[in-house]
Write a structure and sequence with these properties.
five-stranded mixed sheet; WH-like_DNA-bd_sf; alpha/beta; ATPase_NBD; ROK family transcriptional regulator; 43% helix; 394 residues; binds zinc ion; 14 helices; 15 strands
């Protein structure tokens, strides 16, 4: 296995500065890293010699000797991959984690890990071929599952039947010959927010991932917090009531059983059955099924039943968030993964619950916002996961 990482902590800091802030002059880089001139020259020369950093053209002159910009070498390439539950999404990025090429394909993860990993490698092969790319520096993978981070394998994943304990990291690393990191999708998307989204400006934030499954990524003190057994942020199965709807985990009354996309569709079908939503009834008659996107469209169109069921789900989530923000005291809460049309209604209800029910110390200046990344949080976050490892930040 090849390794393109730094030799020491100073080099790691320089690589992360160039990754996060883009090309810099030597002087700017030295100031930002807090390194002496002699140390900076030695470490930069070493990084250039190793092919990890290169010159990117002249910097704006500050007078005196002209200096040149430094950037992460063009040989540094990361892959960010998100798997399932219904799609594989593969992107290759440069050293600053800008997406260079990307492909998506539908997948049925119930075919099992071997078949899904084979499809993933095939798709990654196509992206690399398009770019004429030989080696990868590192690969990050997001799974819709609890992940034992040190082992790189999913743990009892309801959304991935047959995947329990499968060594996703080792299977990919054996094929790709580079470092591979695997984490759950909420953590990975939080890293995407930290790199390219609203989270960039905050050292402490919560990223709440909605959608098919619900999760929460915690960035504390500028680093993703995984906890003792990488189970931190697992809010999906916090029990909201003893006699609630059945959850994918087999229990009843879990948060996810009230707030997931499937739960919203279930409530929408109930509204149709009770004659409460002519809009959704018409959609069901036309398409033969209702999707969460239909619920989003009905909400935007002002359908009272759709709006009520979305607000009810958001209220439950808001109550859980009251506990989380008081306990963690984040600088911001970012909500992502909502289907088109649902975000504003959910956000309004969540804000209303959190601000009404929290003491001012925790929420006095707390922004609660929708993610401003479109659908790139996953692949950029996965590339960031790989780069944090290769650039020594883990
Ligand atoms: Zn559950």
């Amino acid at each position: 296995m090849t390794y393109d990482g730094p030799d020491n902590a100073d080099q790691a800091r320089l690589l992360r500065l160039l990754r996060d802030d883009g090309p810099r002059s030597r002087v700017e880089l030295g100031d930002a890293a807090g390194l002496s001139r002699a140390r900076l020259v030695a470490e930069v020369d070493r990084l250039v010699a190793l092919g990890r950093v290169e010159t990117a053209g002249p910097a704006a002159s500050r007078g005196g000797r002209r200096s040149s910009l430094l950037r992460i070498a063009s040989a540094v390439r990361f892959a960010g991959i998100t798997i399932g539950p219904r799609e594989i999404d593969v992107a290759v990025t440069d050293g600053e984690l800008s997406v260079l090429a990307r492909r998506r394909e539908p997948v049925d993860v119930r075919l099992g890990p071997e078949a899904t990993i084979a499809r993933t490698l095939e798709l990654l092969g196509k992206v690399r071929a398009n770019l004429g790319l030989g080696r990868l520096t590192g690969v990050g993978v997001a799974l819709p599952a609890p992940v034992a981070f040190r082992e790189g394998s999913p743990v009892s994943p309801p959304a991935l039947p047959g995947w329990h304990g499968y060594g996703v990291r080792d299977a990919l690393a054996a094929e790709l010959g580079c470092p591979v990191l695997v984490d759950n999708d909420a953590n990975v998307m939080a890293l995407g927010e930290q790199h390219a989204g609203t989270g960039r400006a905050f050292d402490d934030f919560l990223y709440v991932k909605l959608g098919t499954a619900i999760g929460c990524g915690l960035v504390l003190g500028g680093a993703l917090h995984r906890g003792a057994t990488s189970g931190a942020g697992g809010i999906a199965h916090l029990r909201q009531s003893d006699d609630g709807p059945t959850c994918a985990c087999g229990e009843t009354g879990c948060l996810e059983a009230y707030c997931s996309d499937e739960a919203l569709v279930r409530e929408a079908l109930a509204a149709v059955e009770d004659g409460r939503s002519p809009v959704l009834a018409a959609r069901l008659a036309e398409a033969g099924a209702i999707t969460v996107a239909d619920v989003g469209r009905a909400t935007v169109a002002g359908d009272p039943a759709a709006q009520t069921l979305v607000r009810d789900a958001a209220r439950r989530l808001g109550r859980v968030l009251v506990g989380l923000v008081n306990f963690v005291n984040p600088g911001i809460v970012i909500i992502g993964g909502t289907a088109v049309g649902l975000g504003p209604t959910m956000l309004a209800e969540i804000r209303s619950v959190v601000y009404r029910r929290s003491p001012p110390l925790a929420t006095g200046n707390l922004p609660i916002v929708l993610s401003d990344l479109d659908d790139t949080a996953g692949v950029v976050g996965a590339a960031r996961l790989a780069s944090d490892d290769v650039f020594g930040a883990s």
